[in-house]
Structure formats: structure tokens, C-alpha cells
Write a structure and sequence with these properties.
By secondary structure, the chain is an all-alpha fold. It has one domain. Helices cover about 80% and strands about 0% of the residues. It has 9 helices and no strands. The model has no long low-confidence stretch (mean pLDDT about 80).
């Protein structure tokens, strides 16, 4: 089932880039960065393959990918800033998100948002969703755009370069990145389990006598 889905996505990606060129890369990477898991691990290596064939240019491919990431990320950022914050404040307690947690996230994105976004843009799967919490935390928009572009350019250039090096075997990268996705999901589940345990432990703790 998963292999069939990946095959369908690959066909859509190939058709979009083959038809629209750089515009197709912008469109696809915008979708990928708007919290819709369209795999950049297929998009950019295929674009690199077209560079290998002489149809596109590597730095323009990377720039188009990064520009698309910024566009899609701004949509996700706006959704987090406009709708995510009120929902988190109203219903967060039902998923163990306290006002203190929101304040902590605010401080992280205000003080270290550049590093969070830069590193997040270099991690499979994480990069797709990082813009939404940045919006909830109201990270300064200029810093968000700047570091989204920098991190995305590095990511897009690297994947496209691998596509150039592999040539017609560009699609052999996909299984490796899916292994990274599995590893990241496993780590995320472990972190979430620790987060839940810490909050439940705090709820069971008797109030301090005054």
C-alpha cells in the first residue's frame, strides 16, 4: 500500500516538474512546507536529475525549492498565528499543554527561533510541520522567513545535488529517507511519552502545604 502511494506521488511530482519546470518545484515545495507531507526527498532529486540532463540549473533549482518552502511555510505560520494559539489556549489542557508550556515555547522561538527553524528545515518530516508551532509562538516574521529560506536552500541544494550525482538512479534515494522518517517518528514518540509522563507525574503530586 505504501509503495503504491509513493509511486503515485512520484508520478505526480515528475509530471508537475516536467510540465512546469522551476514553477513546478516552487509549487511542490510550497505544498510540502504547508504541513502537507509531499516528499521533498522525491521532488528535489528528480529536479537534480533534470539538472544532470542539462534541462535545469542546480542553483536555480535550489532557489526555486527554497522559495516554495517560504511560501508554504508562511501559510502554515499564518494558520498557527491566527488559529492555533486560541485553540491551544482553550483546549491545550486536554492534551497536556499548559499555559506554562505555551510560554516556554514562546521564549524558545523568540530567543532561539533562528536555530530551531534552521535545524528543523534540515530534518526529514520535522521540516514539513515546523512552521505551524513557530506561528503559534509568534516568532518574529523576518527571522522566520530568513532562516526558513537558508535552511531550505541547504536542504534543496543537497537533495538536488544527490540527484545530479545519481543521474537516472535518482529514485534510489527514497528508501533511505523513509528510514530516516521512521527513526524521527520513533524519537518523536519517545519524547512525547516522556512529556506525557512528566505532566501526569506533576498532576499526581500533592499540592504544597502553605
Amino acid at each position: 500500500m505504501l509503495a503504491k502511494l509513493i509511486s503515485l506521488l512520484a508520478g505526480f511530482i515528475i509530471a508537475a516538474i516536467s510540465t512546469l519546470g522551476y514553477g513546478g518545484i516552487v509549487l511542490l515545495m510550497a505544498i510540502e512546507s504547508a504541513c502537507i507531507p509531499l516528499p521533498s526527498e522525491i521532488i528535489m532529486p528528480f529536479a537534480g536529475y533534470l539538472v544532470y540532463r542539462g534541462e535545469l540549473t542546480l542553483w536555480l533549482v535550489a532557489a526555486a525549492g527554497a522559495f516554495g518552502c517560504v511560501l508554504g511555510s508562511l501559510l502554515a505560520y499564518w494558520a498557527g498565528a491566527r488559529g492555533g494559539r486560541p485553540l491551544a489556549e482553550k483546549y491545550g489542557r486536554y492534551i497536556l499543554v499548559s499555559p506554562h508550556d505555551l510560554q516556554t515555547a514562546d521564549r524558545w522561538f523568540q530567543r532561539r527561533g533562528d536555530i530551531i527553524i534552521l535545524i528543523g528545515r534540515l530534518l526529514p518530516l520535522v521540516r514539513t510541520f515546523i512552521a505551524f508551532p513557530a506561528g503559534i509562538a509568534r516568532m518574529p516574521i523576518f527571522k522566520f522567513i530568513l532562516y526558513t529560506f537558508i535552511g531550505s536552500y541547504i536542504w534543496c541544494w543537497g537533495l538536488a545535488w544527490l540527484g545530479v550525482r545519481l543521474g537516472a538512479r535518482w529514485d534510489s534515494l527514497s528508501p533511505w529517507f523513509h528510514r530516516f522518517d521512521t527513526l524521527i517518528v520513533t524519537l518523536a514518540l519517545l519524547v512525547f511519552a516522556g512529556y506525557v509522563w512528566r505532566h501526569l507525574r506533576h498532576l499526581r503530586r500533592p499540592p504544597a502545604s502553605g
